[in-house]
Amino acid sequence: MLSDDPGTELVFLYGHQCRDGMMASKLDRAVQVGLGTARGSLLSVAGLPVMVSGDGLGKVRGDVYRVNRKLLDELDEIMAEAARIVGNGNCRRKRITVIEVRYDRPPMEVWVWQWEDLEGPQELISSGDWVDRQATPWFTFIALTCLLTCTLIPGVISTAAAPSVPGFAALWVSLVILALLAPLAGLAAVYIARRRTERLSGFLMVIEVGLLLVLVLVLLQVGSLVFQMFH
């Protein structure tokens, strides 16, 4: 079944191409048609999902989207950059047949990006689902914990007794150190989570923005208190 909407095409996206991955900023302009499977093999090369045509036995799981021609060209550019990162083989957009897995629909003819002539280290994802390759999101949870923790600290600092009050100097200094370290530790966890291609990676940008905002707020509060101490 070809795209039945004039001026649009169906594309099959797998692995890290989907909404929480490299094409996330583009897919808001696409319409998800459904989930599907295609014949082929899913590999991990340089930490990225790579689909190759299989021997008829393997299957790759992914999402089918309807996109316009302009967006299709933009996705081509993203995959060209992915091919540069992979560093070997040829990535080409091809027509394949995808079987929808949830509803009783006829097979769909879609565009997909496949690799040829790959060399070097490769890891076969036997299930065909990139989620099975992604790491457990331990560092994502650590980053979220840091965010939840450090959002409380600016308020504590602003209401805590000033260091000049006897008995509170050590507590105040400890809070300042914790307030500065918590967002920095969270940002480090975000970086590691991205490197590990953890699951739930779609939340990392939100966590990162929150940590940066808290860090700026903490620096402003600490700077204001230090200024008051010496004036």
Would you write up a description of this structure?
This protein is an alpha+beta fold. It has five helices and eight strands; from the N terminus they run βββββαβββαααα. The strands form two sheets. It has a five-stranded antiparallel beta sheet with strand order 1-5-2-6-7, with helices on one face. A three-stranded antiparallel beta sheet has the order 4-3-8, covered by helices on one side. The radius of gyration is 24 Å and the shape is elongated. The N and C termini lie far apart (75 Å). The chain has two domains: 8-130, Gamma-glutamyl cyclotransferase-like (Hypothetical upf0131 protein ytfp, Roll), CATH 3.10.490.10; 138-229. Helices cover 39% and strands 26% of the residues. A hairpin with a 7-residue loop joins strand 6 and strand 7 (108-116). The protein has helices spanning 69-86, 138-150, 153-159, 169-195, 204-229, and strands at residues 8-14, 31-39, 41-45, 48-52, 59-68, 90-100, 108-116, 123-125. The chain crosses the membrane at residues 138-157, 169-193, 205-230. It comes from Luteolibacter luteus. Keywords: Membrane, Transmembrane, Transmembrane helix.
List the helices and strands and how they pair.
Blueprint: E1 8-14, E2 31-39, E3 41-45, E4 48-52, E5 59-68, H1 69-86, E6 90-100, E7 108-116, E8 123-125, H2 138-150, H3 153-159, H4 169-195, H5 204-229
Antiparallel strand pairs: 1-5, 2-5, 2-6, 3-4, 3-8, 6-7
